[in-house]
């Protein structure tokens, strides 16, 4: 009966295929050859099919055996994953890692760190939020996430523990076709009186944390967007000017599609360096997966990848 199938039989079947012989399978499984043959024979009886043609020097899969091989491998893979997950749970491994990332942070570094998590913790679920301004600190304060990456420390409070990582540069830019691009060629600095005539593209805060406050807003007329991708697209399209992370626009600047604006109020040459921090609530210690993510992010910073 199929209900009597065992994992031992399936492992013997797959092992014979991979080793190329019953003797090789026995060596792999640290068993005697007769035991492997017995397991495969019982499996064939219960399935009602012949898995191997044994008439030659080496066993050869029958068409039925070839068809069932993928199913056997899939079952064993799921069982092994279940065992690994149970072992992780016994060691206190989290069921889910929830992370919030400031939208200004380089996403390639996040993807690299997540690769490290997948290699070590296959069964862990990941929940990733990417938010601007007060979104990341609010998510940490409210306990919605385990770990966050924040841009600057202005929006945090005493409940959040910070660990400085690395700073990234931000530059004021406009499309090559924008009037401010031509002005930048004629002027060493762009002052507020010049900027006042043009729309500034600004990120809006999804929370109330920055209510009544603006960061780097110099133009009286603003277009506000809720994500970095839209801000980038609007500036590229020539709808206005704004600050963007250098890692986002370096290729556009090199090609001449975007032009740096020497906005004196935003730093030398219109460039500002922003410090990023790993952040968590002080009353929420990190589990093994969160610690592994932290280590992977810090390793990325150390190597400069």
From TrEMBL:
InterPro entries the UniProt entry points to: LysR_HTH_N, LysR_subst-bd, WH-like_DNA-bd_sf, WH_DNA-bd_sf
Location of the HTH lysR-type domain: 5-62
Keyword terms: DNA-binding, Transcription, Transcription regulation
Similarity section: Belongs to the LysR transcriptional regulatory family.
PANTHER family with a match to the protein in the record: HTH-TYPE TRANSCRIPTIONAL REGULATOR, LYSR FAMILY TRANSCRIPTIONAL REGULATOR
Protein name (Swiss-Prot/TrEMBL): HTH-type transcriptional activator AllS
Upper taxonomic lineage: Bacteria, Pseudomonadati, Pseudomonadota, Alphaproteobacteria, Hyphomicrobiales
């Amino acid at each position: 009966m199929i209900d009597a199938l065992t994992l031992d039989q399936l492992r013997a079947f797959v092992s014979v295929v991979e080793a190329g012989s019953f003797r090789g399978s026995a060596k792999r499984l640290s068993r005697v050859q007769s035991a492997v043959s017995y397991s495969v024979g019982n499996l064939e009886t219960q399935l009602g099919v012949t898995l191997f043609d044994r008439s030659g020097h080496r066993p050869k899969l029958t068409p039925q055996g070839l068809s069932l091989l993928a199913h056997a491998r899939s079952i064993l893979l799921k069982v092994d994953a279940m065992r690994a997950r149970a072992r992780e749970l016994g060691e206190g491994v989290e069921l889910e890692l929830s992370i919030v990332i400031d939208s200004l942070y380089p996403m390639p570094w996040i993807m690299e760190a997540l690769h490290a998590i997948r290699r070590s913790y296959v069964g862990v679920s990941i929940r990733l939020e990417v938010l601007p301004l007060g979104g990341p600190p609010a998510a940490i304060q409210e306990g919605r996430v385990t770990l966050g990456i924040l841009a600057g420390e202005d929006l945090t409070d005493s409940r959040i523990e910070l660990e400085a990582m690395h700073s990234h540069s931000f530059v004021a830019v406009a499309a090559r076709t924008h009037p401010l691009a031509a002005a930048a060629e004629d002027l060493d600095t762009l002052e507020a009186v010049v900027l006042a005539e043009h729309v500034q593209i600004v990120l809006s805060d999804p929370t109330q944390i920055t209510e009544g406050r603006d960061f780097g807003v110099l133009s009286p007329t603003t277009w506000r967007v809720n994500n970095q991708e839209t801000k980038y697209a609007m500036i590229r399209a020539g709808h206005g000017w704004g600050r963007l992370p250098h890692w986002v626009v370096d290729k556009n600047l090199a090609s001449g599609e975007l032009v740096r604006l020497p906005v004196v109020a935003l730093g030398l040459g219109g460039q500002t360096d922003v410090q990023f921090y790993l952040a968590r609530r002080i009353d929420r210690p990190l589990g093994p997966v969160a610690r592994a993510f932290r280590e992977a992010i810090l390793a990325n910073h150390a190597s400069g990848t």
